[in-house]
Amino acid sequence: MTEEMDYGVFEVDQHITAHSRYYAGWMGSHFYIRLRDEKKIHGVRCESCAKVFWPPRSTCGRCFSQLTADDLVEIGPEGTVETFTRVDYEEPVHPRRAPLIYAVITLDGADTGMAHFLGEVDFDRIEIGMRVRPVFAEERKGHILDIAYFKPV
Amino acid sequence: MSQTNMPREFISVPMTVDVPYRFAAGKYLTRFLKELRDNGRFFGIKCPSCGRVQMPPRIVCAPCHVRNEEWVELGLEGTLVGFTVMYLPLTDPTTGKPHEPPFVYGAVVLDGADSSLSHLVNVEPDVEKIKVGMRMRVVLRPREERTGDLSDILYFEPAAGPVQD
Amino acid sequence: MKRNVAVIGGGQTRHAARRQDVNQVEMVNEAVRAALLDARMTMDEIDAVLVGNMEFFEGTHFTDCWLVDGMGAYGKSGLKITTGGTVGATITCAGAHHVASGLFDKVLCIGFEKQEEGDTGAILSGVAHPLYGRSMAGAAVGYFAMMGSSYMATWGAREEHSAMVAVKARQNARKNEYAHLKLDITIADALNSRMLAYPIRLLDMCPASNGACAMILADEKTARDRCDKPVWIRAMDTAHNEQFELDWSDVTTKRPIFSRVSAARLYKKMGIGKPAEFFDVFEIYEPATWAELVWYEDLGLCGPGEGFRMIEAGKTEIDGPIPVNPSGGVLSTNCIGASAMLRVWEAALQIRGEAGDHQVPREVRRALTTAYGGTNWTVLIALSAGLDD
């Protein structure tokens, strides 16, 4: 190459900030309204598959049946810990500072699990199969954190 | 869709994603940006096959698929080939600050280049006064304010000389 | 093509500025169910599901995972593709390749955008080169504005010509029950609308729409057995431009080359000498009015610099000799991920004679559709009523 000169390395730091708004849709809105106003957790039942899914959805992913608001069923409030972990490192995008404990909880009556925080419990005391119940937030706004966390029964 | 499906309100959740990036300029663009930052010079690269002078310099000429190695210094003046008067406050994504409307934005082919460079044009935002073919000159920021980015160019402004057709 | 491919069904949502009543899954599902109904098929029969949108426009990644339930994709083969505005046609092209290859018989193609949910300006700024352009990101409007001002300076067109395109599009859209913007506007309305970036006014630009489109592509045997009016995909072509904006060879009219290159190749593949006579209807991707005039020229419907004379003479009206965008086009409905697929679906409706009030009043046997990606490429698709057309 002509004029061989070492210009070194050149890097630039930039960032992109994007604001979005996710709509829960009609089925999701039912779920969040009932959670916020009644402190009740719902799943949706597919008649064909005889399964109850959380979160509620408008189409059954397995058999493609159209589900309706009439298919919503209350699940929990108690549930069983399927698996859990404690996160000990931090990233800016994490919802909480470390250490944070979260689990996959299958609420009574549901066939799929919910990922959520565990609180009021020592990490060493948690076991798969443990029974837990939700602690609702004082101020609820139609958000998954209207459930603040789950704690041992 | 039956009416009983419709909830009485629609729930939504706002979210902000803020992602940091670090981009590497690579060999050719590093040289281009450092020459701009340190020496206030613009370079293009000439394709040995089609003779086109490309700015910014690319290692390969896209249509010819041939390695380009001949660096060509370009003039600081050029010809306006397209422009618009912006009435929307566009935010510079790298600073987060908007350019206040109305302002003129245009594409200039610097003397010696075959590709164009788009930037702010420092003229009155009056379409009667701006013409494709006008001669433009680059105005750079002072050396201590330059960082090796297109914003090292403050703007284009009209240069003396006849309008080119 | 190794095997013939036909569109045997399709559907679209009613495109709108606000769709708060559905999430992305539910919105896509509306189009999917409409397509299955139109094709008289069940989801079990579909072999692969291909989906596309403008990446990260909704602030969500892995759209193929998110949408699995609504797309019926659970357990099925498929792909997700993101190619900017051209994605609806890229998906169609990929779907056609799937079927033509002989590896799949029935493929569901989906394009969507839930535009109200995302920060399109911020994400679009990511298209500009980070070290050479991002600080000056002029957004889509600036890009088309420069195209317009350059076009006027080069060829002597006037702002009225842009207004004529705007009026044609919205008046056609009034005849399309699915279109987003159905505006009863006049030339004066267009010329008086708010100036965004000279010479582009508000009515010269496309809207941001929420919507989805789905189509089912099938092999010849399935098409003949199951569909009364299969619409055949005869040829496709795409050409990538040089890198976004920076390297265009033809700087004088700020026009990208992809459209000319791919049109020339497609015509050569099909042995077409006079596209204006060969095709009965055109559905082109025009994000702004000036882009439509440039398409007329790049598609060879007229000579260079004559695009504005075509609209002036009314040649591209719905009842004209060269109808362009009887659906109302992208200027009336722009759910970006679906827009390019809507061109194909609308062309298919024209060939089937099922476009309702916006059906062009002549026999339609051949159609040409185009797409436009912010990454500066396109997929052109030629469709016909019969394999001998």
Please outline the helices and strands.
The complex is a heterotrimer of chains A (153), B (165) and C (389).
Chain A: E1 11-23, H1 25-38, E2 41-46, E3 51-53, E4 72-75, E5 79-87, E6 100-107, E7 114-117, E8 131-136, E9 147-152
Antiparallel strand pairs in A: 2-3, 2-4, 5-6, 5-8, 6-7, 8-9
Chain B: E1 12-24, H1 26-39, E2 42-46, E3 53-54, E4 60-61, E5 66-67, E6 70-74, E7 77-86, E8 103-110, E9 117-121, E10 135-140, E11 153-158
Antiparallel strand pairs in B: 2-3, 2-6, 4-5, 7-8, 7-10, 8-9, 10-11
Chain C: E1 5-12, H1 24-39, E2 48-52, H2 63-66, H3 68-71, E3 77-81, H4 87-100, E4 106-114, H5 120-125, H6 139-155, H7 159-173, H8 187-192, E5 195-197, E6 200-201, E7 210-219, H9 220-226, E8 231-237, H10 258-270, H11 275-278, E9 281-283, H12 289-298, H13 307-312, H14 329-332, H15 336-352, E10 366-369, E11 380-384
Parallel strand pairs in C: 2-3, 2-4, 9-10
Antiparallel strand pairs in C: 1-7, 1-8, 4-7, 5-6, 8-11, 10-11
Helix pairs in contact in C: 4-15, 7-12
What does this structure look like?
The complex is a heterotrimer of chains A (153), B (165) and C (389). Helices cover 9% and strands 39% of the residues of chain A. Chain A is built from one helix and nine strands, in the order βαββββββββ. Chain A has a five-stranded antiparallel β-sheet with strand order 7-6-5-8-9, with no helix packed on it. Chain A is globular. The N and C termini of chain A lie far apart (73 Å). The model of chain A has no long low-confidence stretch (mean pLDDT 93). Chain B is 8% helix and 39% strand. A five-stranded antiparallel β-sheet of chain B has the order 9-8-7-10-11, with no helix packed on it. Chain B has one helix and eleven strands. Chain B has one domain (26-158). Chain C has 389 residues and is an alpha/beta fold. Chain C has a domain at 5-120 and 208-226: Peroxisomal Thiolase, Chain A, domain 1. Chain C has 15 helices and eleven strands. In chain C, strands 3-2-4-7-1-8-11-10-9 form a nine-stranded mixed β-sheet. In chain C, strands 5-6 form a two-stranded antiparallel sheet. Chain C is globular. In chain C, 65% of the residues are buried. The model of chain C has no long low-confidence stretch (mean pLDDT 92). At the B-C interface, strand 1, strand 7, strand 8 and strand 9 of B face helix 5, helix 6 and strand 5 of C.
